[in-house]
Amino acid sequence: MDNSNFGPGGDADSLGADKQPRGERPHRASARSVEFRPIEVTVQEGNVNRALSMLKRKMAAEGIYKELRKRRFYEKPSEEKKRRNREAERRRKKAVRISRERAG
Fold first, then answer.
1. Dist CA 49 CA 55 (whole Å)
2. What is the pLDDT of residues 3-61, one digit of tens each?
3. For the whole model, what pTM was predicted?
4. Following DSSP, what letter does each residue of 4-24 receive, concatenated?
5. For residues 56 and 104, what is the distance between their CA atoms, to the nearest angstrom?
6. Cα distance between the two ends of the chain
7. How many Å apart are CA 88 and CA 98, to the nearest integer?
């Protein structure tokens, strides 16, 4: 095992509780490392149609439909980068528009 990231002590225990190995950054949650938790819907009074509509609303709120559309076809890394930049620009413009509406 290579302990070069842990400095002179050589192991993770010598770092302390709040310190990280040199050169490592904290990981952000990404789409690939999302914790999966089940979506639960209870059927009340035998009303399956209402339970299905509740399930659909929860799935839409969780972004499952959007994720399914995104994963339907392979997206090249360059296309993904362009799409993310477009989405970020759209969010920035929306934030500016909302802040101007509140100020004016």
1. 10
2. 555 555 555 554 455 555 566 655 555 656 667 788 999 999 999 999 999 999 999 99
3. 0.47
4. GGGGGG-SGGGG-SS---TT-
5. 38
6. 61
7. 15
The number of angstroms, rounded, from the C-alpha of 87 to the middle of its chain's C-alpha atoms is 14
76: left (phi over 0), alpha (psi -120 to 50) or beta: beta
By CB neighbour count within 10 A (0-12 exposed, 13-18 middle, 19+ buried), where does 26 fall?
Answer: exposed
H or E segment to which residue 79 belongs: helix 77-103
Question: Is residue 31 classed as helix, strand or coil in its secondary structure?
Answer: helix
Q: In a 3-state reduction of DSSP, which class is residue 58? A: helix
